[in-house]
């Protein structure tokens, strides 16, 4: 068998180095694929979380809008003069002019006890 020259040794070394580099690259490629799959899973989970948060925010927005509408109705009804308020105002004015409890019951439709209380409050001392 003939001895190898320096050129043969360099070629064999380079071939071995190329094989080694190829194996390292294959390992890195496999690792990269695993990392990509893991990242895809994370992205899918984050996307699901984002969608859930979006649906929740939309639901909360609808609920806030509904509550604002209800609040406006309550505010309007609280600020609007009530029929009972007008009746009590009229009864108070009549009692101040000297009307009796019976007259307040008859004219304003008040309960007898309310009319007597209002007359006693408006009666001069």
- Proportion of beta-strand residues: under 5%
Question: What characterizes the major β-sheet?
Answer: none
Reading the helices and strands in chain order gives HHHH
**Average of the residue pLDDT scores:** 90
Described by its quaternary structure, the protein is single chain
Give me the secondary-structure category. mainly alpha
Give me the count of strands. Answer: 0
SS field, number of helical segments: 4
| Alpha carbon gyration radius | 46 Å
Estimate the global geometry from the Cα principal axes.
Answer: rod-shaped
Span between N and C termini?
142 Å
> pLDDT below 50 for ≥5 consecutive residues: which ranges?
none
**Helicity level:** over 70%
Comma- or semicolon-separated keywords:
125 residues, mainly alpha, 4 helices, 86% helix, rod-shaped, transmembrane, DUF2802 domain-containing protein, transmembrane helix, DUF2802
Descriptive report:
By secondary structure, the protein is mainly alpha-helical. Among the domains are: 39-80; 81-125, no CATH class. It is built from 4 helices and no strands. Helix 2 (83-96) packs antiparallel against helix 3, helix 2 packs across helix 4 and helix 3 packs across helix 4 (112-122). The relative contact order is 0.05. The model has no long low-confidence stretch (mean pLDDT 90).
């Amino acid at each position: 068998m003939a001895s190898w020259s320096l050129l043969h040794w360099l070629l064999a070394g380079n071939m071995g180095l190329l094989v080694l580099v190829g194996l390292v690259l294959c390992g890195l490629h496999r690792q990269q694929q695993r990392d990509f799959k893991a990242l895809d899973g994370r992205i899918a989970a984050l996307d699901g979380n984002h969608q859930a948060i979006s649906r929740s925010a939309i639901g909360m927005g609808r609920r806030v809008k509904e509550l604002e509408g209800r609040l406006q109705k309550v505010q309007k009804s609280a600020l609007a003069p009530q029929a009972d308020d007008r009746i009590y105002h009229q009864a108070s004015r009549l009692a101040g002019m000297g009307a009796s409890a019976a007259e307040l019951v008859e004219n304003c439709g008040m309960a007898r006890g309310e009319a007597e209380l209002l007359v006693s409050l408006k009666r001069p001392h």
